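Q: Structure tokens for this one, please.
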Amino acid sequence: MSPSAFSPVARGPELACRVDVPDAFRPVAEYGLRMCLLPFRLQVKMVDACSEEVGLYYGTDPDAAPDGWVRVVPVDATQALFAGGDRFGGCAGVRRVVIDGDSVPVLFDAGSDGDLSFDPIAAIAYLLGGFHEARTVARDEHGRMPDALTLPVELGVADRPIVEYWRLVVASALLENGVDVVRRSFGEHTWAVCPTHDVDYTRKWRPGIFWREIVQRGVMGQANEPVGKRAGRVVNAVKGLFEAGDPYRDALIRMREETEARGGKGTYFFKAAARGSRDVQYDLDDPFVAEQLHALRVAGFEVGLHPSYHAWNHAAHLDAERLTLEATTGRRLASVRMHYLRWRHATTARLAARAEFVFDSTLGLSSQGGFRAGTCLPFPLFDPVSREELPLWEVPLTCMESALFNRQGHSTEGAIDATRPLLRAAERFGGVFVGLWHNTLWDEADCPGWGDHFLWTLDDARAHKAMLSSVSGVMSAWE
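A: Here is the predicted structure, written as tokens:
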């Protein structure tokens, strides 16, 4: 798949669109307008004059657009925010409007001489364009933007894809003017679920784990667990010394088999290097690993790169690891997800694009489920500094199992309850639910109930007629 050539085809009528703003704001405005219409079967045709009977006008002179055009007027304060280096800071007093029966925050007011009371085009450009992330200085111990400072979390709507609500407002206005607005689909499916797996380790029982389980947690009690559980850890570790199987290897196989049994595919992100204490070294030429890579290829699953801890902002590391995994698999890699979800916008995006990846699936929340970018749909990333669209599509991560169980402390039922509304949101808006499960599933000593959560999600996707496929598979099917 050629990175520069990828673009999902928008089948449908042409829609005339005119952007009439100062040159400095134009790249942002054009990106926001195209992202506003991205989910629909409309071919955007940029025009210099409003000569067609219907269209979408975004500019400061709404009288230039005749009746039949939807007119959105950006105000000076909005343009000033994009021109400066400030992040949106009006979360506490943000205005809310009712859209499709739900109360939804809107970021920017629009001029009263237009057809909409708020500016969804600027709001979508701001959120999908990464302006809030690029302008946030605070970082956690892994160099990530803290979840609490992401705009959807700040606004209290991380569990709802607010960008999709804003898109609905524009779609409704176009429908009222006689434009045939129909959502894109994923082949015969109206929505999709992507099971993805970060392979951080290929076995549990390693020297360091024996030391942790027997000495640190079993004998010394460093995990502050009851005596019975400490004894159980020692017993399990001793068994691991003599038994042929390994829970992480068993999970690596079973995840594929369970997905296949439901008629689906998925994406496995493998590591190709270890460059620090946050990486665990494994050999891609190990017979078991080679066997699993072959089995995934035969079954039609996707293999992507899970870069080493320090590769997220290191071009040479990223390039070398891509080449290593490609040489092992004999295939060009399309997808990438950064280790520990490390991301700095737009540095990481530019490096991934430079390394000729087509899809990234890093942009998710590390401490909870939700829509970090405010959307449940893929979108091309944007550099808010250079004001240009990048040749890299984000397929945003919706939910990671360790965030639900470890960070939020959910039981299996609690994790399912937290996941269900995220799935229903993706289904409602014709989007993609991207789930992340590590090959620690069914290790009931350390990850009790995680496997049940995975199986429940697969069954829910099947029951609700989602396309169940890999990152690349879903993107290839998106009309």
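A few notes: DSSP finds 16 helices and 16 strands in the chain. The mean pLDDT is 93.
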